[in-house]
Amino acid sequence: MSGAWSWLFAALAAGGVVMLRAAFLRAAAGAGVDHYYWLIAAAAYRESKRLPAVIRGKYLLEDERQFYPPAFGWLLSRLPPSWLAGRGPAALMQATDAATLLLLLAFAAARGVDPPSAAVLVLVYGTTPILVSYNCQLTSRALGNLFFTASVLALVCASGRPSGEPLFVVWFAAAAVATALTVLAHKMTTQLMLALWPLWPLALDDGRAAFVVPAGIAIAIALTGPRFAAQQWRAHADIVGFWNRHRDLLGAHAFAHSPVYGDPARVGDTAFHGPGWKSWLARAARAFGYCPLMWLAPATLLVAPRPPAWVLAWTLGTAGVVLLTLYVPLLRRFGGGHLYVFNAAAPTALWWADVLAHAGAGALAVFVLGCGVTAAALLQAYRLRRANRARRDRGFEELVRHLRALPRGRLAVFPLTAADELACRTPHAVLWGGHSYGFRLLEPIFPVVREPLAAVLRRYRCDWLAFDADYLAGCEHRVMAELAGGRVARFGRWVLVTLAAVAAEGAASDPASDPAARDRGGGAHVLMRAALPRG
Q: Where are the domains of the chain?
């Protein structure tokens, strides 16, 4: 391919990626779960002068002190609230992904990559389905991936150089710092980093590579202080322990599979780790669809020269972690294995850029097949994004406006995927958590409801219950019977129950004049008002 055609191919690849990302951002506008937590966290980090940041009066089922890796919250706190309330989050997530891609391109360019290979790298990384779909919301996963990619590439640059050479010191230090930032950015990426750690001395044929992770952890402790670092790892163990206890309930329906309201024996109907070959096949299909070119890359070993050993270790090691956490029961505690595919995009892009530079028709045929499957996966993901956006009906927005007008209080909401958004867009505390420490507090209602809902609402002195009637389905009448005496308002398919004690209090006096009613949810809403999106 001539120089002009090579650069045209590279430009077309980059333009196609930009158009694809823009289409997904439009389809996903207003969606996201973690997104709303991070808007709340940004205000908390902005207000806090030291670690841990504190989210007051928003989440009833977790420690108010935030022991999640702090790098992303700290970054958001440095950005203008008005920018975060608009198109800023979309720009930030795409910029983070672009930074990772530029890092890969700079590394490849330093090794003399030609324009067609650079175009392949852009195309593979930029169109990886899980990146395209997932990075439409605020998420710390992208930042963790950026730092982890930087740590691996810096370690590769350091390996093989004499220990006394200044460039070895520079690159090893860069790898250690990037490792520290990975620890401070994202939990699952840190878990993957630790799983791949033993591979680097072998893949790079350099025993010094074994020291980069301990050095990075030491730097992370120095940056946050030993006390916060200990709490961060304690919170990390807390969520691992939670999913160890409930690993078979991932994906369960809170009511349909509840021992109180449903049939626990039917949890396999929707649980991610359901029994039988159909569940095994569904998990494999999801992981394959998230990055088809990763799973097809090993086929090139039969028809083309193999890529460098460290690219093999990075790609196949990540694939191994995906499979182990998907199919080995004891390892499911470390999170949904399919999500580790997120971190496979970078080594997969390097693999294909290297292989296609030296390959013949066989490898090219595998690549074209992978591109076709990727296009099909992207089309399906786009349709799902559009469908999810269409389901955000007027009723939910009416519910949000109604709740905003009420004095601060305590709100339970089902499905729980709406809890962060209602916490963010209204002044109320929600019966939810799962972001910091205290995962045992979730067990009465998550993954399934284990106690009569009325008892849980009384224990946490909730003022309202909001639910999607379609979600509660067959048990709505039973829940409503438990809450007899409450005042009911309907907003499309959304139902808001003002609980009996609150309804009686409202009938006896004006809630707006009751300081206790105004202050029940804490003062965080005042601090966050400027940062929150308007409905």
A: 3-30+67-388, 394-531
